[in-house]
């Protein structure tokens, strides 16, 4: 029967045989799959694995620094790239969800390619691109995700090998998510990464309805951090499949002292699910929701209303875009 220890042992041997003294580059996302794939590759070839982690300006609050720090603690050789300004510039004025996905995917590839070329110029032994593809990504049909499949492939750095002329190594391509987590635990991947909720490749870019500005990102990051930190504080984080905060393009009237305000709304989303294909909204306790709501409204400038999304998938989706 399948055990994580046997899988690790066998895969490490296979990777050593496959890769020899070649070097591998790989894009990391902060998510479970790419991190576990990288740690498996690292186990096999050590510092012949070079990782690239891009800050697209659409990550959660402090996530880039925290995750980069975890990667370094794990002993991974990782290059952190601050590409925030480039993403914001290219996204300016784009409101259409698929338009945003396309830009985010394209800019990611441009940034990754640029870094990869720099590394290749220094290191002639780079012959492979590592990817965190897992079995459901392999079998997932276009009809499941519609247009977001292109981003799924962005997530897994699809589209890159053609231009970079690299061969692909995908050590997790036969595994399901729960198996990936077990392999990660076997490899001592930190709990803060293994237990993470799924987070879309386009990040907060598809949780800001309408166009994206650095100011909206900062506002959403603050609100989202309050929500996620309270989920942890109340012991609810591990009970939900995924949670996130959505910044709505809606203003409504409020009162503060004797002034009327006219400010933005955030929606809180939390779902229970097994695979993200169907999802039930999480029955989070009212006292928890009350705490989050008042913390957000009292602390995040520009937000005067918080709503909770009680929609089921299908027909609603988990994300709003
Ligand atoms: P939906 O919104 O389709 O989401 O119910 C199902 C799962 O997929 C994630 N998702 C994405 N992941 N790129 C990704 O890498 C995307 O464009 C994208 N769109 C949705 C979503 O967060 C949920 O886990």
TrEMBL record:
MF annotations from Gene Ontology: ATP binding; GMP synthase activity
- Binding residues for ATP: 29-35
The chain positions of domain GMPS ATP-PPase read 2-196
Ranges in a coiled coil = none
Q: Cellular component terms, GO, for this chain's entry? A: cytosol
In what pathway does it function?
Purine metabolism; GMP biosynthesis; GMP from XMP (L-Gln route): step 1/1
- Domain of life according to the entry: Bacteria
Question: Which reaction equation describes what this protein catalyses?
Answer: XMP + L-glutamine + ATP + H2O = GMP + L-glutamate + AMP + diphosphate + 2 H(+)
Q: What class of enzyme is it?
A: ligase
Q: How does it assemble?
A: Homodimer.
What name appears for this protein in its UniProt entry?
Answer: GMP synthase [glutamine-hydrolyzing]
Q: Which organism is it from?
A: Phaeodactylibacter luteus
- First and last residue shown, out of the full length, are 197 to 517 of 517
């Amino acid at each position: 029967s399948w055990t994580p220890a046997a899988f690790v042992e066998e895969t490490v041997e296979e990777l050593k045989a496959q890769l020899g003294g070649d070097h591998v580059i790989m894009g990391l996302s902060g998510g479970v799959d790419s991190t576990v794939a990288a740690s498996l590759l690292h186990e096999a070839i050590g510092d012949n694995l070079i990782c690239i982690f891009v800050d697209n300006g659409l990550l959660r609050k402090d996530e880039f620094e925290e995750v980069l720090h975890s990667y370094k603690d794990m002993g991974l050789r990782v290059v952190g790239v601050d590409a925030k300004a480039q993403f914001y510039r290219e996204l300016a004025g784009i409101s259409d969800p698929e338009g945003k996905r396309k830009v985010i995917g394209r800019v990611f590839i441009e940034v990754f390619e640029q870094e990869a070329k720099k590394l290749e110029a220094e290191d002639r032994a780079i012959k492979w691109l590592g990817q965190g593809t897992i079995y459901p990504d392999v079998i997932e049909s276009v009809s499941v995700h519609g247009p977001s499949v292109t981003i799924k492939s962005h997530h897994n750095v699809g589209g890159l090998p053609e231009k970079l002329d690299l061969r692909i190594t995908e050590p997790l391509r036969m595994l399901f998510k729960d198996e990936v987590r077990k392999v990660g635990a076997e490899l001592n991947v930190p709990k803060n990464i293994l237990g993470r909720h799924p987070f879309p490749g386009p990040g907060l870019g598809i949780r800001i309805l309408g166009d994206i500005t650095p100011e909206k990102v900062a506002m959403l990051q603050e609100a989202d951090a309050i929500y996620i930190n309270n989920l942890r504080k109340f012991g609810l984080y591990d009970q939900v499949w995924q949670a996130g905060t959505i910044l709505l393009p809606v203003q409504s009237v409020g009162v503060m002292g004797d002034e009327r305000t006219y400010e933005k709304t955030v929606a809180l989303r939390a779902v229970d699910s097994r695979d993200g294909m169907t999802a039930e909204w999480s029955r989070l306790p009212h006292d928890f929701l009350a705490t989050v709501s008042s913390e957000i409204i009292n602390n995040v400038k520009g937000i005067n209303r918080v709503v909770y999304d009680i929609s089921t998938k299908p027909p609603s989706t988990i994300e709003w875009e």
